[in-house]
Write a structure and sequence with these properties.
19% strand; four-stranded antiparallel sheet; 239 residues; alpha+beta; globular; five-stranded mixed sheet
């Protein structure tokens, strides 16, 4: 391969690498799928897909119904012509002592919880940049009055649609110290709790492990075609 052809090939490859590197932690893969580069999971873009798909009238489900919905969910990605069936609810990690360690910051329960304590907390605080109703000192944060949504701390939804703030979202993790209870997260006030009765009805956001194949953007296709065109032109000249 001569220098001209090598440079064209390298240029096409570099354009692909740069387009991926320029993306943020949440990458809209198209087809209704959001890749989370921090957690290496893929979220459904529709945060109330149980309702949108017709599975439930309003998307509010008990814990058992929500976990069953996620486990049996089949989602067709028309962009890649692939059906994904490995869905689940987000997980929660019981940090510190067993059970809910309430605090206004840094634990697994309460406000401003450690983002590592759950996938929903990480998404809400770290990637979407939302606030809790209370600050780490227990004072009102002013998120209601100062944010874009006067009745919720869910001011930033990023690339998601139908993100609900009037009720909690279930975690797929049960609350070990108390049978019949499970963890949940409230986007309306940034509060995480483990003592929610599994008979309560909350929303559910489905997530699956890993990434989906990226679909190159139009400008990336153009760069690739330009590189291939240069290769073809060079080969024609040599002929």
């Amino acid at each position: 391969m001569n220098d001209t052809i090598r440079m064209a090939a390298l240029g096409a490859a570099a354009s692909l690498a740069l387009s991926g590197a320029a993306q943020a932690a949440l990458v809209d893969r198209g087809g209704g799928l959001i890749y989370d580069t921090d957690l290496n999971v893929t979220w459904l873009q529709d945060a109330n897909y149980a309702q949108t798909s017709g599975y439930d009238a309003d998307g509010l489900m008990s814990w058992s119904v929500a976990t069953t919905w996620a486990a049996n969910l089949t989602y067709f990605d028309a962009l890649r012509n692939v059906t994904y069936t490995d869905w689940r609810l987000p997980t929660t990690t019981d940090t510190g002592t067993s059970g809910c360690d309430f605090a206004y910051s840094g634990t697994d329960c309460g406000y401003n919880v450690d983002p590592a304590s759950s996938e929903m907390a990480h998404l809400y605080f770290t990637e979407l940049g939302n606030l809790s109703y209370y600050t780490s000192t227990g004072a009102e944060s002013g998120a209601f009055a100062g944010g874009t949504n006067p009745y919720s701390t869910l001011d930033n939804v990023g690339p998601f649609i139908n993100f609900q703030s009037d009720q909690n979202y279930w975690s797929g993790t049960e609350y070990a110290p108390l049978p019949g209870a499970a963890w949940g997260f409230g986007p309306g006030d940034g509060y995480q709790e483990g003592l929610y009765n599994e008979g309560n009805v909350f929303y559910a956001l489905a997530v699956r492990p890993g990434d989906v194949a990226a679909v190159p953007e139009a400008q990336t296709y153009a760069l690739m075609l330009a590189g291939l065109g240069l290769v073809g032109w060079r080969l024609w000249r040599r002929g």
